[in-house]
Design a protein that fits this description.
alpha/beta; globular
Length: about 130
């Protein structure tokens, strides 16, 4: 895919603040075709065949996620799907993280300790937008 081609992204996170903050940041700072959100793994499995995202940003701790089962199932539904796992608790070099990469995830990223929506920059931007 050429670098300037707009992409579609599905963000799945069980925490609404994190999910919406990631979606807002991606919408604001990238040239995406679409950004869709999901609050559960079940919702991810429902939305993948409909929206056919290029990238799935998936919270590692989302309920019912089992890398050895979930990642191959996602890749079966949409073989071109690139999966980026995010976690506030798992280290990117932990055995579990490395196993997820073996099962087909593309990247494993650590979330910041505080949600993006609690950062002073995010709060300032959104409070001034409401004024």
């Amino acid at each position: 895919m050429p670098l300037n081609t707009p992409i579609s992204i599905l963000i799945a996170d069980s925490t609404s603040l994190d999910r919406n903050a990631m979606a807002d940041a991606i919408r604001q700072y990238s040239q995406t075709k679409t950004v869709t959100v999901a609050a559960s793994l079940e919702e991810v499995f429902q939305k993948i065949p409909i929206f056919k995202p290029d990238i799935l940003i998936l919270e590692y701790e989302i309920p019912n996620f089992q890398p050895e089962k979930s990642i191959p199932r996602l890749k079966t539904i949409l073989p071109t799907l690139e999966i980026v796992l995010v976690s506030r608790f798992h280290r990117t070099t932990s055995e579990e993280s490395l196993k997820a990469l073996e099962f087909g995830a593309m990247y494993f990223l650590k979330k910041p300790k505080e949600t993006i929506s609690k950062s002073p920059r995010f709060i300032m931007k959104n409070s001034s937008a409401r004024s």
